[in-house]
Amino acid sequence: MERPSTKPIGLILAGGRSQRLFPESRPKPLLEVNGVSLMEQSLERLKNFETYVITNQEIGLELKKYLRAKRKETKFLFEPEGRDTAAAVGFGLRHFRDQDSWVAILSADQWLQDSSAYWDFLKVVEKEIELYPEALFVAASPSEHKPQASHSQFGWIVSERESPSQSFRVKNFIEKPQGKELEEVRKQGGGINGGMFFGKIKTFIKAYKSLFPQPLDSNQDYFKIQRTPVDRAIFEKYQEVRSIPLHIKWEDLGTWQDWAKQIGNEGITQIDAQNNFVYSTTNQKTYIFGTNDLAVIQTNDKTLVMPLSETRKMKDYLEKLKE
Length: 323
Fold this sequence. Notes:
- The protein is of the alpha/beta class.
- The chain folds into two domains: 9-251, Spore Coat Polysaccharide Biosynthesis Protein SpsA, Chain A (Alpha-Beta Complex), CATH 3.90.550.10; 256-322, no CATH class.
- It contains nine helices and 17 strands.
- The strands form four sheets. A five-stranded mixed β-barrel has the order 8-11-9-10-12.
- The longest helix has 17 residues, at 115-131.
């Protein structure tokens, strides 16, 4: 058990490789925008917290080396194996189960432009937790923060519209709605799931004991824990979940299309007038005529060509290449 802390606890989930950003092979938290890594920015968002990075041994060693070079001292909690976010959050929480503080759970995969605005958002979160200590909280972004064409790629949260405070009781979680279902979600004033979670540690422990107890048990065979996201294992089932509007734009940076918005045509990234995107590790020049929104990914021995929208399925396509 960790020593008691007077600060809130911050848990940063940082277990991902850059599989959707093939051929990039660095841990995704180490990818940089304007010279600042996603990992550094995540730590900055929680600078007033007692913060721990949850990762696995392999990626953790790379993160440690990188942050040491940046002269940033960071605390780590190493999972025996990555088992998706429900296991990772539970694994982190069990180290603080007796502490009477609250916790912020963020992903090192996200990029926000303004950390100082996020600090103000966290002040709102803290007040809402004081008002509703038995609730768990999730950040919800206004639908207009994302292009309508991308709305079906996100999880959505439908909440009650009336509330005496700055948070709203969640009625439903809807994963990647399409067609009429998406239209109905928009009509109901749904927000986009920001993948940021908050609440009293004791409330999280209560929820895990009831709904997904395995990660809390240090005697559990960790490799047998079900792989499932924390949204599905906990938040979609817990009886009292509240959403807090997040009026700060964020990007998942999960595909080359997302990265193109941030890094423009720096380095070896090429974007033409038709919004075709080329990423190449070779000196070969690529010309594309007569088509729009195409992605071309080149290495010394492979060339992948697909619609930009399909780059979100990069992991699936790479699995097919292995076959």
